[in-house]
Design brief:
- With 296 residues, the protein is α/β, with parallel strands linked by helices.
- It has two domains: 213 residues, 3-Layer(aba) Sandwich (Rossmann fold); 75 residues, no CATH class.
- Helix content is 35%, strand content 29%.
- The protein is built from nine helices and 13 strands.
- The strands form three sheets. Strands 5-6-7-3-8-9 form a six-stranded mixed beta sheet, sandwiched between helices. Strands 11-12-10-13 form a four-stranded antiparallel beta sheet. A three-stranded antiparallel beta sheet has the order 2-1-4, with helices on one face.
- Helix 4 packs antiparallel against helix 5.
- The N and C termini lie far apart (49 Å).
């Protein structure tokens, strides 16, 4: 198997509103995938479609070569940690492990108990009495002990403080190295994803704007700064992602497979956050342009 998740023209509509439209992606196996975008971009909808919790309105999606949630065996291959890392407030840590063992045929009880001990969680403590970071770690432990081939995490650290976020992501990184499984992790914080992800998907306005391996994306995108120039005058192999102008200067973010040697430009590398923001800025600018036209 070469793909963990494949989607073709995937869409989900709630009433008249499309939460996800024309989503076509192919996520290869062996990656920790970051799904990033602003609130309301469709990240949770895409992940719930992948987890089998929602049915598509349009298009197709396969996960690990099968229909999401199609059979008990398929469900056992995918772990899902929902937004706000839900646990049962009235149950103890030990209760959660017993429940996980009853519900999951591939459950690794030894790993779960070892991880709980390493985290310093007391088995008799109720989840409702744990800190936000401890609840997140408990939810991650349940997802890991399921021994999934794909673990889906929907903004699991959004409500945590910086220290708890760092500890959660460090634990996730260690687990992926130790147990060799695939991860799709969503967030609207690029800095969190940058720590752990080697494949990135940018989702804006319910559509995929960019997808690929992080190293490849950074190698093929550049910032150009120089005398003011119309984007149409750039070479055809330099695809403009975003453009900003002053009276005398232009700054472009472009995608180009070949090196850029034009002496008129100062060419600089982009950080991952710069790159993500450029794609978000492009879509925002496109929306501003289309809106007046739609009103005519």
């Amino acid at each position: 198997m070469t793909s963990v998740l494949q989607a073709q023209a995937l869409g989900k509509r709630y009433g008249k509103r499309w939460a996800l439209r024309e989503c076509t992606i192919d996520i290869p196996a062996g990656h920790v995938v970051g799904l990033v975008g602003p609130n309301g971009a469709g990240k949770t909808t895409l992940l719930k479609l992948a987890g089998g919790q929602l049915e598509p309105t349009a298009g197709d999606i396969t996960v690990l070569g099968g229909r999401p949630g199609g059979t008990p065996a398929q469900l056992a291959r995918v772990g899902f940690v929902a937004q706000d890392t839900p646990v049962y407030a009235g149950l103890t840590v030990a209760d959660h492990l017993r429940l996980g063992a009853r519900l999951n045929p591939r459950w690794d009880d030894g790993m779960a108990r070892e991880r709980i001990a390493q985290l310093g969680l007391v088995p008799t403590h109720r989840a409702g009495k744990l800190s936000g970071g401890q609840r997140a770690q408990l939810a991650l432990t349940l997802g890991l002990a399921k021994r999934p081939e794909l673990l889906i995490l929907d903004e699991p650290v959004a409500s945590l403080d910086p220290l708890a976020r760092r500890e959660f992501l460090q634990g996730l990184t260690e687990a992926t190295v130790a147990h060799d499984f695939n991860v799709v992790l969503s967030s609207h914080l690029v800095s969190d994803l940058e720590r752990v992800c080697d494949f990135m998907i940018v989702l804006v306005d319910s559509r995929v704007q960019m997808a690929g391996e992080v190293d490849r994306l950074l190698a093929t995108h550049h910032r150009l700064t120089g005398p003011r120039r119309d984007p149409d005058r750039l070479p055809a192999d330099q695809h403009v992602i975003s453009a900003h102008h002053t009276d005398r200067q232009s700054t472009f973010v472009v995608r180009a497979d070949a090196p850029i040697h034009d002496p008129a430009w100062t060419v600089t590398r982009l950080s991952l956050e710069d790159l993500v923001l450029a794609y978000m800025d492009r879509q925002t600018a496109e929306n501003r342009r289309v809106a007046p036209e739609a009103q005519r």
